[in-house]
Amino acid sequence: MRRSVALLMVLIAASIFVFFFLNLVLGSVSIPFSSVWNILWGSGDEAVIWQNIVWKSRVPQALTALVAGAGLSISGLLMQTVFRNPLAGPSVLGISSGASMGVAFVILLSGSLGGVALSRLGVAGEIALSVAAIAGALSIMALIVYVSQKVKGNVTLLIIGVMIGYVANAVIGVLKYFSVEEDIRAYVIWGLGSFSRVSGDQMMLFVCLMVVLIPLSFFLIKTLNLMLLGDGYARNLGLNIKRARMLVITAAGVLVAIVTAYCGPIVFLGLAVPHLCRAIFHTSDHRILMPACLFAGASLALICNLIARMPGFEGALPVNSVTALVGAPVVASVLFRKRKNELNE
Fold first, then answer.
1. Which residue in 106, 84, 212, 234 sits closest to 158, CA to CA?
2. Would residue 238 be called left, alpha or beta, if left means φ above 0 and alpha means ψ between -120 and 50 degrees?
3. Alpha carbons 86 and 84: distance in angstroms, whole number
4. Cα 27 from chain centre
5. Do the Cβ atoms of 282 and 116 come closer than 8 Å?
């Protein structure tokens, strides 16, 4: 059993390297395999335009997809465990909606109040978007953590989170109504999600943040396994339920906030990957699921980015269009399987 788990884990981890390199080779501009290899290792004399495409476009996109996919998948696993709900995802508590609201205030009010659309501000505009998204997401997360200390049931907290998300979306709707067309278009494009938005110093900061935050979530493995036993058993084993719930929600929320700030609201990855990992490994043990979600989420995000930049397309498809095509069948299969099990019982 351990050998088969280790083999599967190695195969999934190896797929990351394969799809990462394919992300560097394939795209709207055809670059030979050998040329990409030479560019990466600094050998040979390749065309400058190819070097710029690889180092300034494809490498940042691939790295962003890798860490974003891993972070969202782990966040989804944390949420599904703490709420004991197979359809709970990273955005279930309205944290993604909070990030979207923060961005909406910056984008949709910039043209109306300042007279200059944020989309024209280049790098400064992108930094402003990231700061606004983080501020919005962390504000909602702080509210959720506060509420989690006041309510007992996970279902109550889940409903409150969904209601907060609706309120945030209502505020966004009002801002859209009073905004100019150019700002609305810029906001809609941000909302489609993209791994290509992060580059240069922003990409390094994003990757460094995720490299720190993702390993920290692994310290919650024992807590998550205890929470699977139910509140009564977990409390008898010495687990402080309120404190544990707050830690798990905070960890998941921070991961979602950072990814949403840099990449926009990426859907379905965090919802679908934990189910894929449970189906592959046939276990609920987080000692296996956490690294599995990390590897599988990174690999699946790279696949989605590859499809979005498929050769023959000028530009790139919205990432959310691709992730939905991958994630929706997984969510549907969970619903059908759950219904089938209920009928059998």
1. 84
2. left
3. 7
4. 23
5. no
Cα–Cα distance, 273 to 239 (Å, whole number)? 27
Tens of pLDDT along 21-35? Answer: 988 888 777 788 888
List of residues 6+ apart from 155 with CB closer than 8 A: 83
Q: How far apart are CA 334 and CA 330, in angstroms?
A: 6
Closest CA to 123 of 63, 185, 200, 68: 200
From the list 184, 30, 2, the residue with the least C-alpha distance to 110 is: 184
- pTM value? 0.86
Whether residue 225 contacts residue 287, with contact meaning beta carbons closer than 8 Å, is answered with yes
Tokens of 248: 């798990």
What is the rounded CA–CA span in Å between residue 330 and residue 282?
Answer: 16
How far is 51 from 64, CA to CA, in rounded Å?
19
Report how far residue 258's alpha carbon sits from residue 112's, in angstroms, rounded to the nearest whole number.
27
Q: Where are the alpha helices (DSSP H) in the chain?
A: 2-25, 33-41, 48-53, 59-83, 95-109, 123-150, 154-177, 181-191, 200-217, 221-227, 231-236, 241-263, 269-281, 286-308, 319-344
Which H or E element spans position 51? helix 48-53
Q: Do the beta carbons of residue 90 and residue 254 sit within 8 Å?
A: no
Token couple for 342: 């209920």
Question: What is the three-class DSSP state of 179?
Answer: coil
The tens digit of pLDDT for each residue in 65-91 reads 999 999 999 999 998 888 887 777 777
